[in-house]
Amino acid sequence: MDLEARKYQFIQELFNIHSESIIDTLERVMKREKEAYQALSAEHKMELDNRLKTYKNNPNDVLDWNDVKNDW
């Protein structure tokens, strides 16, 4: 069964749930998974912080997008 079919089947099963506690649990799981997926690793955060610091220290040291695009 492909992912789209599984999602459709899951949605159909949701309509048959009559317990609010089950819905609450599913919502918590989905929220936790979404947050985990969007969370940055420590390494990524450090890299972004370093890039931001470099930019703030040298705001004019940038490349023009058209120049970069033409070089590629």
From TrEMBL:
Superkingdom, taxonomy of origin: Bacteria
InterPro entries per UniProt: CHP02574_addiction_mod
Pfam families: Unstab_antitox
Protein name: Addiction module protein
Organism whose genome encodes this protein: Bizionia argentinensis JUB59
Lineage of source species: Bacteria, Pseudomonadati, Bacteroidota, Flavobacteriia, Flavobacteriales
